[in-house]
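Lab notebook, bench 4. The sequencing result for the construct came back, and we need a structural model before the next group meeting so we can plan mutations. Quick request posted to the team channel:

Model the 3D structure of this chain.
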Amino acid sequence: QVQITESGGNLVQPGESLRLSCTISELTFDNYSLGWFRQAPGKEREGVSCISWSAGVTYYADSVQGRFTISQDSAKKMWYLQMNLLKSEDTAMYYCAARVGNCASAAASFPYWGQGTQVEVAV
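Done. Here's the predicted structure in token form:
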């Protein structure tokens, strides 16, 4: 069974940086994509970024383009979300997710999820 674990969330000041990490175990398929999503209180879960594991193609939401960077460590089966110039509107629970095939924008397209890590940017 695929297991996903996120870490790295914290309380930071606006303008500061955080790096979220995600580990994945029991991943037996080769062609998959890994995504980061976030959900703020009272809002729907939204896609932040995605990377196609095999091709390394990356996608970003407009709201984080230029500030966030997704990356992967193939050997360790880990991927990361480097978040710079954080804003109060980035406050949310951040989730890792995985799916077979290319990246997708809809959360419903990802069958495998972690429990989330909380990111809070002070107002």
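The chain has a mean pLDDT of 92.
Will bring this to the meeting.
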